[in-house]
Amino acid sequence: MKFNYINNHIVIPVYTSRGIKNAILDTGNPSFTLFKDNSIKEISLSGINFNLQSNVFSEIIQTIMNWGEISKLVKTEIDGIIGYDFLLEHDLLIDLKN
Question: How far does Cα 46 stand from its chain's mean position?
Fold first, then answer.
């Protein structure tokens, strides 16, 4: 999987119904993969299709996330977070050298 390492964050280009979006890998996020555009229901990365969870908790988290501050911290536009729910189902090898 191709990714960018920006300001100590792994930023992954993710294919969505709304085009390619930037998502940060958040291994500390205990629950959800989510995007600021709540119309995105499925993502694809490295040929893996993944359906996003939708429940009251994920909707609350999605609305209170300060996406502008996250983008400012990472120093690039961030559209979503890849969380534990994705990592639980898929192996991921991070090779910072290549």
Answer: 13
CB 66 within 8 A of CB 90: no
Tell me the C-alpha distance between 96 and 92, whole Å: 12
The Cα–Cα gap between 48 and 26 comes to: 18
Distance of CA 23 to the CA centre of its chain: 3
Q: Which amino acid is at 27?
A: T
C-alpha–C-alpha distance, residues 61 and 10, integer Å = 21
- Ordered per-residue pLDDT tens for the chain, 98 residues: 788 999 999 999 999 999 999 999 987 766 688 898 988 999 998 888 999 887 777 778 878 889 999 999 999 999 999 988 888 888 877 777 77
Phi/psi region, residue 7 (left: phi>0; alpha: psi -120 to 50; beta: rest), is left
Q: How far is CA 84 from the centre of its chain?
A: 10
**pTM of the prediction?**
0.85
